[in-house]
Specification:
alpha+beta
Length: 369
């Protein structure tokens, strides 16, 4: 195999590919990237057996062929080569030579035949989603994905279709303390799709690749696998084999106390008083009076803090506590200049959204303070 490629093109592709590769691997071949030189370009592939990324890039190929080489090592080499340089890759007899400018590297390779490929099987559901819509779905939900391995079915974003007043596609994530849900119009081809849970790592890799995509993303899925076509890159992932809980039961519909508040001043106020909150509880108390909201924190180690923030509130006064970090995560997703906080009492779930037309809504469980 022998090919020549521009450093910037190779570096960008390796950047996408190498983040899939785990730093510590008990199976040596999984530390490698598969490089296939075919007519007109290079095909790079990396996998961790659950997730696979394939990227096709332009290159001048002298001799077609294929080999596998350590992904992180090759990425670091290409990163350190001079800008604007041409990189020559040639492989034979268990070695790969990388030449860029005056630098030469000889790397160990493993045979292409040993490299595992995720068998996709049939992917009967296919639809296109605008890249911007997919970014919105990920950005507004992924902070609520659970990291608890015991509840593995919460370790991803739940995607399902629903017939509300109009057919919609919904994405939801929860860790038991907070819930994030985004609703978008159902794309053509998604009708009858199975309910799927996209794993956290796949969500992270997909989000990085979306920054390079302008138009639409082709989504193909079955009950066990999902594939995203992203221009020159294809991301394939196994789905989480589990049942996502019926989250609609925790979305409150009868919260009768309404607070309307500027999300930025609310966010800044919470952030300021939370400075002295203890790491363990991170609890912020919110005291609601008519058009007066007082945020306060009491920390046995550090002392107390309080701040008044302006807000529009006309119901009975009461106190409620929230985890400051969870509240800040939600407020950080609010784009408008007004947020609605629907409250019931100090123990009931609280609903947060921009308005009833907004695609995203959030539910936050209160804390004892």
């Amino acid at each position: 195999m022998k090919a020549t490629i521009e450093r910037a093109i190779l570096l960008k592709a390796l950047g996408h590919i190498q983040s899939v590769v785990e730093r510590r691997n008990t199976i040596p071949i999984l530390s490698n990237v598969l490089i296939e030189a075919v007519e007109g370009g290079l095909r790079l592939m990396a996998t961790d057996l659950d997730l696979q990324v394939v990227e096709t890039i332009e290159a001048a190929v002298d001799t077609p062929g294929a080999t596998t080489v350590a992904a992180h090592t090759l990425f670091d080499i290409v990163r350190k080569l001079g800008e604007g340089s041409q990189v020559e890759l040639s492989a034979s007899e268990g070695k790969m030579q990388v030449i860029g400018g005056r630098a030469r590297f000889n790397l160990q390779t493993l045979p292409r035949e040993d490299f595992p490929v995720i068998a996709e099987g049939e992917l009967p559901t296919r639809f296109d989603l605008p890249a911007e819509t997919l970014k919105q779905i990920i950005d507004k939900t992924r902070f609520a994905i659970s990291t608890e391995e015991t509840r593995y079915y919460l370790n991803g974003i739940f995607l399902h279709v629903s017939d509300d007043t109009t057919p919609v596609l919904k994405a939801a994530a929860t860790d038991g303390h907070r819930l994030a849900r985004v609703t978008v119009p159902r794309p053509d081809g998604a009708e009858g799709m199975p309910d799927v849970i996209i794993p956290r790592k796949c969500v992270g890799e997909l989000r990085k690749l979306l920054d390079e995509v302008d138009g639409s993303v082709e989504v193909s899925l079955s009950p066990t696998k999902i594939r995203f076509g992203l221009g020159t890159a294809i991301l394939t992932s196994k789905l989480i084999d589990g049942t996502f809980p019926d989250y609609s039961r925790v979305i409150p519909t009868a919260n009768d106390k309404l607070l309307k508040i500027d999300p930025r001043s609310f966010e800044e106020g919470v952030d300021r008083v939370a400075t002295i909150a203890s790491e363990k509880t991170r609890a912020v108390k919110m005291s609601l009076d008519r058009d007066k909201i007082t945020l306060s924190v009491t920390s046995p180690e550090n002392g107390t803090a309080a701040e008044e923030v302006p807000g529009d509130y006309a119901s009975a006064s009461f106190d409620i506590g929230f985890n400051a970090r969870y509240l800040l995560d939600i407020l950080g997703q609010i784009d408008g200049d007004l947020v609605e906080v629907h409250l019931a009492d100090a123990a009931a779930p609280t609903l947060i959204r921009e308005n009833d037309k907004a695609p995203a809504l959030y539910v936050l469980m209160p804390m004892r303070v």
